[in-house]
Amino acid sequence: MASRLAQFRSKAAQASEFVSKHGCAYYKELMEKNKQHVVQPPTVEKVQELSKQLFYTRLASLPGRYESFWKELDGAKQIWKNRKDLKVEDLGIVTLFGVELYAWFCVGEIVGRGFTLTGYKV
Fold first, then answer.
1. Domain coordinates of the chain in residue numbers?
2. What percent of the chain shows pLDDT beyond 70?
3. What is the sign, positive or negative, of the torsion defined by CA atoms of 61, 67, 70, 75?
4. For 42, left (φ over 0), alpha (ψ -120 to 50), or beta?
5. Are 83 and 90 spatial neighbours (Cβ–Cβ below 8 Å)?
6. Are 96 and 89 in contact (CB under 8 A)?
7. pLDDT of 30-87, one tens digit each?
8. 86, 79 in Cβ contact below 8 A?
């Protein structure tokens, strides 16, 4: 346990040194590449206005999403009714979708627990 702690401290020191040397240059480069997305002057009022625009834009997109959801559900119902006519390619797509769901829920849960299988951290 003590050797792991020493290893962790060493790696943390290396990471800290790297960030202190290269962090400022990385920040400047990142801001230069994305300067078209920065609102000038950056005032509190402008930030509040942008957050309201984002909220109401997302809210306005709900009816379209609602319609898309029901269209997808109807399509899935049709596929289920005609499941005897499915091809191998269709079954492969369904399998890949199932694997993706597994990754999102199960693997995401493992990542959320800090990459431990039981929730116990060493």
1. 1-38
2. 94
3. negative
4. beta
5. no
6. no
7. 899 999 988 888 899 999 999 999 999 999 999 999 999 999 999 989 988 988 888 8
8. yes
